[in-house]
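Dissemination and training. As part of the outreach component of the grant, students in the summer workshop were shown how a complex can be specified as a set of sequence lines and then modelled as a single object. The example used during the hands-on session is reproduced here so that future cohorts can follow it. Participants entered these lines:
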Amino acid sequence: MIKGISSRLSLGLFLYPTLVLFVAAGVTPLGYAIYTSLHKMNLMKPALGMPFVGLANYVWVFTNSGAIDALLRTLQFVALSVVISFILGAAMALLLNGRFRGASLVRAILILPMVVTPVVTGMMFKFMLEPTFGPVSYYIGRLGLGPIDWLGNPNIAIYSVVAADVWQWTPLVFLILLAALQTLPQDVYEAASLDGASSRQLMRYLTLPLLRTPIVLALLLRLMDAMRAFDQIYSMTRGGPGSATEVASVFLYNSGFRVFRMGRTAAFAVLIFAVILVASYIFVKATAKRAAREGTA
Amino acid sequence: MTRSNVKSAVKTLIAFAVAAVYLAPILWLLMCSFKQNEEIFDLPPKYLFSPTIDNYSAVLGDGQYLKALLNSTIAAAVVAAITVVLGSMAAYALVRGSLRRTDSVKFFAISTRMGLPLGLLISYFLIFKHLDMLGSRLSLIIVYTNMNLGFAIWMMLGFFESIPKSIEEAALVDGCGRVSAFLRVAIPLVRPGLAATAIFTFIMCWNEFPYAMILSDLRNLTVPVIIPNYLGVIRLEWGHLSAAGMLTAAPVMIFAMVIQKHFVKGLTFGAVD
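and obtained this result:
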């Protein structure tokens, strides 16, 4: 009995350092962000202090054209990046499902884009897309197209930063879907083929329903990654030209550390954070459901 | 050749074509890192050239890069060590204690790692400014530990769960306390997990950019922060940039290969086993 208590006590102690850190470095800054978001705070004008302004900063987010544009641009960036990387990743997974020589080597190579330091990825793409001597511009020029100023043209720059994000994260979709495809029950497919199902029908009535959960997971992970994309975009364009690539994360950075409007920036951050929190929650529920189903199967 | 052999060969071909496209930007950077600066501007691009290590010697000879390399290594290694210690303790408590709330830990892990880092950046900046810690290495270490800990706990949960309870119970019956059962029985059994978690954390810290940019001062700058400087207003050194980029990315690429499976599992939150 005494031993039980002491063991529970020491196990509880094991959690304390983590809880302390979590409160100090996780909860406190979040609380402070909310607090800041309710105050006017301009680091360039410290004499004004930090007057309470209620929800004015939130109103500002929804009425300021710069902030709204950043949100819309984030939507555009996220939608493009998620959809393109999903289609490419799914196509690759379907194409490369099954045994072939060199499969593990290819899988290993495809991990690399996800681990290359994102700032290096950004600079790498800046290099590839350089309008005069970058290889992409050169070879596209040889095809008779161009010259295209990939990062300097405000109408094109957003697609260039999407390309870097797609390059980095398509392998994630590929690996998730490939892993899922490999667990599909082969006998069911054989039975269905014997019954005369076409490959389109197999796809529609077998593969897609069976892959529902991994597809949702891949999309949610991509969604969260695309929402917080910053490093490559910042190192490629710093949000420019003008504000053509200023997605939410870059907007946050610029308005916080270039304009120093901390209250407004905090309000913007809190709103974005809420969206990500909801996405994380859905993610956890989705994986929990999957785990439960696998447990009973 | 049978039909399935042909099919497999075609697949291999497609697979390597895809992989080649994926590797192209990295290989391009690698190639340029061994070129003279003038050769980089040659059109059409030259694929045969006499390689030089000038760029590497210039980058490594410049005190700034080496200093940043040292700063990155210290920050990443210290955070990896702290994270593994705290993470394994917490995970062990969650697995063996009666307080199992894996779901909320998972939620915590995902929200700290997926949460927009910039959302908290302003708070960190203001708080560390109040505490007069802005620019210190400690501020970065605290932030990085918080960023990785939830995730490390979640990763360690899986490793501890795979240990049969009976092994530790035997130790407890033999008069071992919980702490020594943890240190002498459980920890040695999850050593590969500790290594994988440490390496994963190291990679995450090594690559981190926005926190480092705001929270470090000139003495503590990490590598990602100085990389964009190679294309500054004054100097446009594509050769140096390529060499610095390769030097920066190579360690984490190697680490990711070493813990391949765990790395993918980690990135996908366990969706790929």
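The domain at 65-296 of chain A is CATH 1.10.3720.10 (MetI-like fold). Students were then asked to discuss how this feature might be tested experimentally.
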